[in-house]
């Protein structure tokens, strides 16, 4: 029976970041990825997605992403970079491998998959959130006769041509999908609060730096004109173009569905052919359920390390696993600290 020092579940940006720092150690590790190719969750995003930071702020540790020909890198460019990153460092990866569950027996983790069982002394879960899209509950949603899809299943605007489309959810995904669909369809945009758009000359670099300073409790300079949040909308080219067409106008949530559309809070009915939910994701932790650690879709951690199961680390799920750990630029720091802790544990 082969026993690895570390098994990493997930071969996206978080898993690769952990692998980058593990390769410097003498530990034997293996990445298990459920995709057929490199790219992680980015493989499941829409065709024309644009990152909202320049290449140098869209890079993993150790090797910068090659400069894009456009202002912001495309989805295809980033996936190509992740593939090249894997090859550059020759990470040990098995794919596609579907992980069913993780068990603990005699001090070892047993990761049960469609390719057999894998044994390890420690475990890093880096499965992210893309496999668990979140759709808020609305009354009578099942009565709606039109199409409902989550942004994770949106590819392009072709199937929405000349239709009435309701786009629900703010943030960069909502704004970019609205910008695209509104070119071919009649759209309305619903957000919980009025969306915040960054000035045209501000992008993800500023967002990350300002949010970091705020998180650390430091004084933020030159931020009088706009609040700081990683949820602020970056004015990429497509969103600027949508602004010129006056389609970036959001309304507050509706009350409920009816067969042909939605009912607003004033009782008015409006017909829609389709709803696109740009409402985010939740942590994909189903494979860890048998360990009985999950509470409210989270596992209590100190940094990235599970408090109840000290040989388990979780990387890339959001701020509860380290500030900005779900971002390309932010995951490196939490990955580095994770590997320091794993190395210290196994060297005892």
User: Separation of termini?
Assistant: 23 Å
Number of helices: 6
CATH topology name of the largest domain, in short, is: FAD/NAD(P)-binding domain
Order of helices and strands: EHEHEEEEEEHEHHEEEEEEEEEEH
Content-based structural category: alpha/beta
How many E strands? 19
Gross morphology is: globular
Helix content: 10-25%
What is the CATH C level class of the largest domain, in words? Alpha Beta
> What is the CATH architecture term of the largest domain?
3-Layer(bba) Sandwich
Gyration radius over CA: 21 Å
Look at the structure and give the mean pLDDT.
90
Tell me the count of domains: 2
Mind describing the biggest β-sheet? 7 strands, mixed
> Spans of 5+ residues with little confidence (pLDDT < 50)?
218-227
Protein name: FAD-dependent oxidoreductase
GO molecular function: flavin adenine dinucleotide binding; monooxygenase activity; NADP binding
Keywords: Oxidoreductase
Pfam families: Pyr_redox_3
What's a quick, concise take on this entry?
Pfam families: Pyr_redox_3. This protein is an alpha/beta fold and 348 residues long. Helices cover 21% and strands 22% of the residues.
Report on the architecture of this protein:
It holds the Pfam family Pyr_redox_3. This is FAD-dependent oxidoreductase. InterPro entries: Auxin_biosynth/cation_transpt, FAD/NAD-bd_sf, Flavin_mOase, NAD(P)-bd_dom_sf. It comes from Bizionia myxarmorum. By secondary structure, the chain is of the alpha/beta class. It folds into two domains: 3-132 and 281-346, 3-Layer(bba) Sandwich (FAD/NAD(P)-binding domain); 141-197 and 233-277, FAD/NAD(P)-binding domain. The protein contains six helices and 19 strands. Helix 1 (13-22) crosses helix 6 (331-346) and helix 3 packs across helix 5 (237-244).
